[in-house]
Specification:
The chain is mainly α. Helices cover about 55% and strands about 5% of the residues.
Length: about 240
């Protein structure tokens, strides 16, 4: 299955130049696979016990779940590769993940959750729809119906969120396209890029909705994503 978080971990592995193989997993297979690898389940009440991304490193025989923990593991285990979370940025990264979710990612969910099922295989789509609709108590297509006042409001919140995130880059005053400002990637950059790649996948690269996203903030997001071209091979 594909999600913004699995996409940005693969971006990170490409950036570090580490060899890897992606194992495609159907939603119903996720818990038995990760538990068999010895992955420690999440202790958060707000999260399922097993989620993606997760990696298994055959060299160390360690399995890690959670994108931030994976970034820290890769930095410490492979110190000769470019760092994703430099020690002096750990406070920034902890704050960033919360802020990014609050100002943007949570506002995207009503627009994309139902459409996300359409890009999944039949077994995963069935599981995805059944579990989300059971949790919500209604059909996913009712979250933000096309042509509804709710959808207009949802788009307004999304556009506002993108503007807030764009303002974080603008605050540097140096025209940067990456949060580090020195041409190196950070965990936060891969987080943002993974979200954009997922939206392009779910909306469709030629769709009006995707064109709307990449044109926001004077086309900033189109330029931002173009900067990741050399790390964007997620076919492995």
């Amino acid at each position: 299955m594909s999600s913004p978080i699995t996409l940005h971990r693969r971006l990170a592995l490409n950036y570090k130049g580490l060899p890897y193989r992606t194992e495609w997993v159907e939603y119903p297979e996720l818990t038995p696979l990760l538990s068999s690898l010895g992955v420690q389940p999440s202790e958060s009440a707000a999260s399922p016990p097993y989620t993606l991304p997760a990696i298994y490193d055959p060299r160390t025989r360690k399995a890690i779940m959670d994108s931030y923990k994976i970034a820290l593991y890769l930095d410490s285990t492979y110190p000769d590769t470019p760092a994703l979370v430099r020690a002096e940025t750990r406070v920034f990264h902890a704050a960033f993940e919360h802020a990014f979710d609050m100002v943007l990612r949570r506002h995207l969910r009503p627009l994309v959750l139902h459409r996300a099922a359409a890009v999944l295989s039949p077994p995963s789509a069935k599981y995805f729809l059944e579990t989300r609709e059971k949790a919500l108590g209604f059909k996913l297509e009712e979250l933000s119906p096309p042509g509804s006042a709710k959808r207009v409001q949802d788009w307004a919140e999304v556009e506002k969120g993108f503007s807030v995130v764009a303002s974080w880059f603008e605050a540097a005053g140096d025209g940067r396209l990456l949060l580090s400002g020195d041409g190196t990637l950070t965990h936060a950059d891969t987080h943002v890029a993974g979200c954009l790649m997922w939206l392009r996948l779910v909306f469709g690269p030629e769709s009006e909705d995707w064109r709307r996203v990449e044109g926001l903030n004077g086309g900033f997001w189109k330029r931002y994503l173009a900067g990741f071209a050399k790390w964007m091979d997620t076919s492995r």
